[in-house]
Each structure stands twice: as C-alpha cells, then as structure tokens.
Amino acid sequence: MAKLRKLVTYTDYRWEETEELTPEQLKKWKSGDETLQEEVMDEVEFELVNDKVLEDHEWPELIEEEE
Questions:
Q1: Of 43, 44, 55, 56, which cross-links 18 as Cys (Cβ 3.0–4.6 Å)?
Q2: Overall pTM > 0.70
C-alpha cells in the first residue's frame, strides 16, 4: 500500500491597531522610554484590522509500506 504526504506551512499575517491614543499616552510613546511605552501597551487593546494567510507546500512524497 502507498500514499502521498506533503508538508504545508500556513503563515498568518495580522495587522492590529488600537483606538486613538490619549495626549498623555502619545507623549509617553514619543518619549522613547521603553518603561513608559510599556505602560501605554498595558493601557491599550489591539484589535484586528486586516489579516492575510499565506500557504506554502512542498511537492508530495511517496510513502510505501513494506509488506
């Protein structure tokens, strides 16, 4: 008996955005200070705005079972 097998790789690219930043959040973000930027990241929520799935696959290989 024989069958075919192939490796399929799916990659999902997602673009996520937040609501408008407050003036205070914007000031923290623009400061370049990673600690302040982390504070902003803790305060906001990202929502999906777009995504794209890419598929790549190899040529199937023959698998033969020995009897």
A1: 44
A2: no
CA–CA dist 2, 17 (Å, integer): 48
Q: Which amino acid is at 55?
A: E
d(CA 9, CA 36): 37
Cβ proximity of 43 and 22 under 8 Å:
no
Structure tokens at 5: 């097998």
Which position has the token pair 């937040």? Answer: 18
Compute the distance between CA of residue 38 and CA of residue 25 in angstroms, rounded to an integer: 10
Q: Are 60 and 8 in contact (CB under 8 A)?
A: no
Residue bearing tokens 């079972």: 65
How many other C-beta atoms lie within 10 A of the C-beta of residue 36? 15
